[in-house]
Write a structure and sequence with these properties.
Layout lengths: L14 E4 L16 E2 L1 H8 L4 E4 L5 E2 L4 H7 L5 E3 L2 H4 L3 E5 L2 E6 L2 E2 L7 E2 L1 H12 L5 E4 L13 H8 L4 E4 L8 E4 L2 E5 L12
């Protein structure tokens, strides 16, 4: 609708960044669960120029690892999935190098969960590729009252780029974290345009 009204560029010139947790339990009063989000990715990829993102801790990309591998790259989408590569991934879309690490810090053995050390190590490897944009599902520590990854926060403080993250609602959408511009996407749709 926004594109049809001219508020944002036409969708065939619009990129979409997904920070995970796209699965919605069939019972709207029940939180959590795990479900296949491939239809959501396809719905964004159909009209848009490109889609890139990471799976959240409630998202499955099919049933098996082969499903994940086969779906990870489409004609105009890239799922940056630690479960496929073992350490996150990087692509170039829309003239930007984009890196990402999916999943959340938590008890290993549960779906899409990593230890803090595994997660921070994977993010550090991706930052070494010097991306313009980093996407993680796990959010950094925001302040003393909200949980989050202290290790991710420390890495972002030294990252001179943009980081999009989900998992837990950030106190505000735009968060300066050292030299990094942090974007808290959980529960939000943000439309960012490039000034002419």
């Amino acid at each position: 609708m926004l594109a049809d009204c001219g508020v944002i560029p036409p969708l065939d010139r619009t990129g979409v960044v997904l920070a995970g947790d796209l699965y919605c339990h069939v019972d709207p009063y029940r939180l959590g669960g795990l479900g296949d989000v491939r239809p959501v990715w396809r719905a964004f990829a159909d009209p848009c120029a490109w889609v890139v993102g990471v799976p959240g801790n409630h998202d499955s990309i099919g049933i098996t690892k082969l499903d994940r591998i086969n779906f990870a790259r489409g004609d105009n989408w890239a799922v940056l999935d630690i479960a496929v590569s073992g350490e996150g991934e990087s692509v170039v879309l829309g003239g930007m190098r984009i890196s990402g690490v999916g999943g959340a810090v938590g008890r290993p053995g549960r779906p899409n969960r990593l230890s803090e050390d595994q997660f921070v190590g994977a993010v550090a490897k991706q930052l070494a590729t010097r991306p313009d944009l980093l996407i993680t599902h796990q959010h950094p520590a925001f302040d003393g009252s909200r949980p989050g990854s202290q290790g991710l926060r420390a890495l972002l403080e030294r990252f001179d780029g943009v980081a999009v993250f989900g998992h837990n609602r950030a106190p505000q959408p735009l968060l300066p974290i050292g030299s990094c511009t942090g974007i808290g996407a959980d529960g939000r749709v943000l439309v960012l345009t490039i000034p002419r």
